[in-house]
Amino acid sequence: MFSKACEYGIKATIYIALQSLQGRRVSLKEIAEKVGSPTAFTAKILHQLAKNDILDSTKGPTGGFQIEKKRIDDIKLADIVFAIDGESIYEGCGLGLDRCNANKPCPVHDKFVVIRDELKQMLQNTSLFELATGLEVGLTYLKR
C-alpha cells in the first residue's frame, strides 16, 4: 500500500519519537539500523521529513534527529505519508487500471472509494504519539 520509502519513513519517525520522548537525539546510523533501512536511503527519507517540518535535524558531531515532545501528539500519520508519498495513496484505480474514474469506473471502483476514504480518516486521526506509545518495549515491531 505504501511505498518502501514511506514504510521506512513511518518506522524512522516512530523510532525518533520514542527517543525524543526520552530526551534523546538519534543519529542517522542508529535510525537506519533500528528500522532495517540502508543508510543512504534513510538519509534521503529523513531529509524529506525534515523538509516537511516533521523532524528536527541538527548537524555536527553531537547532531542527529529529534522531534519536540510537545509536537509528537500533533503530528498525524497522514503528515508522514504525505511528506513521503504525496497524495498518490488517495488517487488512482484500486486495480491499477489507467482509465478508471467516476465516469468510467472499474468493477471495484465504488468499493475502493469507500476503503480509500476510511484509510484517509484513519491516517488523519492517528497521532505519532499514539503510534510511538503503542509499540511494545524493545521495539520488536520496527524491524523485521
Output the keywords.
single chain, 144 residues, mainly alpha, Arc Repressor Mutant, subunit A, two-stranded antiparallel ribbon, elongated
Q: Care to describe what's here?
A:
The protein has helices spanning 4-21, 28-35, 39-51, 77-85, 109-125, 128-134, and strands at residues 56-58, 64-66. It is mainly alpha-helical and 144 residues long. It has a single domain (4-134), classed as Arc Repressor Mutant, subunit A (Orthogonal Bundle), CATH 1.10.10.10. Strands 1-2 form a two-stranded antiparallel ribbon. A hairpin with a 5-residue loop joins strand 1 (56-58) and strand 2 (64-66). One of its GO terms (cellular component) is cytosol. GO terms for molecular function: DNA-binding transcription factor activity. This is Transcriptional regulator, BadM/Rrf2 family.
